[in-house]
């Protein structure tokens, strides 16, 4: 499912830990936030994650939304820190980390959409998706975690 | 001159630039100037009816143009115009997912 020539997404441990914690804390609701970092020719490296409020009115167990003001702040933060706004993360409580039709509806090109699957308040899986050039479907990005040794620690705290 | 902030995901269609300065008098003119300069942006910002796409919001400063005069909102010197994509999503009901897989 991975697109040829796509970059490998590296999740550094600090943002990965933060996103996992946020996804667990907000369970059974969906969490969301922005990811920042930089790119090389072959890799996209996430160095910072910043949680934002899920502003979806209604069922936050199944939907998330980020307010335009939080989006504008995210762009301003990236410019201020000389980083690239590389994507959005959110959680799928009690569901797999598979991008859904709802994720696809408003997906933008370029962004990585990282999804944490949270099952019974524990992280079960993480996957990342990016919109294909045709704008009609996602492809799965290869994700490399630098956190592996600390995952169990987080889930038990 | 007013300054447009191009959202990161669309910068690849704008020569990887973040800002676009224009002496346009309205938001409509500014968007027209932007898409004339960077034609590849047009399909991502404008729908088939010539309107700004439904999942794109435009802000002048902190104000959504919908609360002002819409696309005809006038621009003043030093206004900052933000193009803001909708960010939303969520889980798919499992029966929908299973249907998709088969």
Explained architecture:
- The complex is a heterodimer of chains A (157) and B (102).
- Chain A is of the alpha/beta class and 157 residues long.
- Chain A has a single domain (8-149), classed as Cytidine Deaminase, domain 2 (3-Layer(aba) Sandwich).
- In chain A, 25% of the residues lie in helices and 38% in strands.
- Chain A has an eight-stranded mixed beta sheet.
- The N and C termini of chain A lie far apart (34 Å).
- Chain B is α+β, with helices and mostly antiparallel strands and 102 residues long.
- Chain B has one domain (2-101): Beta-grasp domain (Ubiquitin-like (UB roll), Roll), CATH 3.10.20.
- Chain B is 23% helix and 24% strand.
- Chain B contains three helices and six strands.
- In chain B, a hairpin with a 2-residue loop joins strand 3 and strand 4 (63-64).
- The longest helix of chain B has 11 residues, at 27-37.
- The termini of chain B are far apart.
- The mean pLDDT of chain B is 92.
- Chain A binds chain B through residues 30, 32, 56, 62-66, 68-69, 71-72, 75, 78-79, 84-86, 88, 90, 92-96, 98-111, 113, and chain B through 5, 7-12, 18, 44, 55, 57, 59, 62, 64, 82, 84-94, 96-97, 100.
Number of strands of chain B: 6
Return the structural class of chain A.
alpha/beta
Could you tell me the strand content of chain A as a percent range?
35-45%
Corresponding CATH superfamily of chain B: Beta-grasp domain
Helix tally of chain A? 4
Query: How many distinct helices of chain B?
Result: 3
The biggest beta sheet of chain A, please?
8 strands, mixed
CATH topology of chain B: Ubiquitin-like (UB roll)
Give the class of chain B from helix and strand content and strand pairing: alpha+beta
**Shape summary of chain B:** globular
Question: What is the domain total for the residues of chain B?
Answer: 1
CATH architecture of chain A: 3-Layer(aba) Sandwich
Q: Low-confidence runs of chain B (pLDDT<50, min 5 residues)?
A: none
Q: Biggest sheet of chain B: strands side by side, in what order?
A: 2-1-5-3-4
Order of helices and strands of chain A: EHEEEHEHEEEEH
Q: Major sheet of chain A: order of its strands?
A: 8-7-6-5-2-3-1-9
> Which chain pair shows the most residues in contact?
A-B, 40 and 29 residues
Order of helices and strands of chain B: EEHHEEEEH
